[in-house]
Design goal:
Blueprint lengths: L1 E3 L59 H8 L3 H33 L5 H54 L2 H6 L2 H43 L1 H48 L1 H6 L3 H12 L28 H41 L4 H43 L34 E8 L10 E8 L4 E6 L5 H8 L7 E6 L2 E2 L5 H6 L1 E4 L10 H5 L5 H6 L2 H10 L3 H5 L18 H14 L4 E5 L7 H14 L4 E5 L3 H4 L4 E6 L2 E6 L1 H7 L1 H16 L2 H7 L5 E3 L2
Parallel strand pairs: 4-9, 4-10, 7-8, 8-9
Antiparallel strand pairs: 1-12, 2-3, 2-5, 5-6, 10-11
Length: about 700
Amino acid sequence: MTITQKENDTMKNEDDVVIEATIPTVDTTPDEDDDGITEDAGSISSKTTATTDKQPLRSVTPTASKIFSLIRTELPLLVLGLILMVVSEAASLTIPLIVALAYDALQTYFIDLEVTMSEINLWMGTAIGVFILSQLAGVARGIILGVLGERLVARLRRQVYASVLKQEIGFFDEHKTGEIVSRLGSDTQLLQSAVSTYAPESLVGFVKVIFAVILMYYINAKLTSVALSGMAVLCLFAIPFGQRLAALSKRYQDALGDAQTRSTEALGNIRTVQSFASEPKELSRYTEKIGNPDENSNNSNDGGNKSKNNNDTEKEDTTYDVGVKKQITQIGLYALVFGGAFTFLYCSLWYGFYLVTIEGSLTLGGLTAFQSYVFIIGAAIGSTVNNAAQLLSAVGASGRVFYLLERQPKIKNHENSNDSDNTGNTNKQAIVPTSPMEGNIVFDNVMFSYPTRPDVLVLNAFSLSLEKNTTTALVGSSGSGKSTVVSLIQRFYDTEAGTITLDGIDITDLDMEWLRSQIGYVQQEPQLFGMTIRENLTYGLSEAAADKITQTEIENACRDANAHDFVSSWPLGYDTLVGERGITLSGGQKQRIAIARALLTNCRILLLDEATSALDAESEHEVQKAIENAMIGRTVVIVAHRLSTIQCADQIVVMDNRKIVDVGTHEELLTGCRRYQDLIKRQSTMMRDVSAGTIQKLLPTDFSIDEE
């Protein structure tokens, strides 16, 4: 039977027996009892960890000491900035008083012209000089605090990113990548604004109020007491607004983080989105996070409460709904502060006229200066309340940042752990073997469950020996635990019971960086980065090793992986950019690049997790040749469904229901393992059922099928 099409033939030959169906399946959802990895041979999705709903990032209580620890390195800059702030604000606040003295001198203009003009010139010249000093100090303060903020956010992002990279795989199973990225970006930006803007400006407002009150008492104590009584009432009304604004700011930031998580996830899988024509669905899901101003909102006028009934309390905040409430509250706060400030300004001005005209205890210049200070205090209170609200929001965000900074990975080297071993020794060091690794791996009575599903046992009393320089294939139905074995060898997870040893050493005692440097890992969907071919090939090497590697070594690795011919055929060769996630390469090309990358690390252990299951016949043939070259002189573990990939393995491990059913060669299992026979028989039946008529139904109408 032949299948013809204008494009390349992508179907396998009839005599290429496989253990699972190779026709791509549309359903990409893992089974509920899966071991956490989608392992179907024809799945068009990449492997993902099946979990329950991922949890939001936790938050720790930000204390003064924690916040201070962030700025400890920048303390000299901060102190200098605060000194300049005091100089700038003190100078600017004396200007109204100096100008008032000039006004008083102007009152005696017709009495003594010569003396009055010289006095006016003195005071106005002083005012101009003080203003210039204030501006210079203010500019210097702004530059210093701006630089401080940029230094802080750059250092903070690096520290948070370093902490995130150290976390175990289970951490990423539990949390959405988009949320982590959002915290790394927006929350750290909020902290920068808090240190360089909100906190200093709040302090500026406080300093302004203190200095202004002192100068007002200097001008007239009686008038100041009247004005401050009104300001006290104003503050009492402003405090609830400020508290509400702080709460809304935090809710807005959380809603914005959820929206960013949704968009990041969709755009990162844009090919899947478009292949299923799911753009409207993704727009709808994104709209659920940001809200839609063109639709009526059931909770837009709920006074800040999510709802009064139990059903609506579960409705999530949207950036639109919370943003509207935030804007209304902010405008209300400004209206209260500035409106109240001007109201008390006019009232105090009215009383001031009485003191000037009737009592004569206040000069006209003093009243003018007093008026300026009342306005300054009103503006300072409004600014301080707003900045304080933003500062509180930033402090809330800092709790999530501190969680990422302080979280200790559950899988780490002994030298980074405070846990004691069985002898009570808390100073046990991770082992870096000095002798060459042989590659003997032993699983001894291993019990394991994924952190996201601790009640589901994935491996139960699992024992297996993998001898050096041999190839072991793991076969079985999806969910039997095959890919879990591969993950445990790399110590992506730790076992709940039992041990895994490498050359007789428990892998939990080995230095993780050393352990993983000895392992080459090739997945069903290899992960390439948006860099050049050369950079992707040397990604598994340290920076020093990558700088020393020669072009000949790179080409030899690619020849062994059957990748050199197609790479060298491109105009830029190894300097060709592959696009985001290697989008410009075919599946087979990406697999061969991934194999070459593993070979360049000179690994002693090679893990192949469904490395050919998603490829067509021609691509699989090329990748299979690359795999055969890569297997020489290494301990190899293959997770596969296709017989062409596993039949030459030294031992085949048949897994079912999280346990090992049987171990042997292909020939031994064909005669002695019922489960292995069933796997092949089921596949043979499926291949026979895929008759010409069945295939014709699955193919486009422009295909033709002819019996030979």
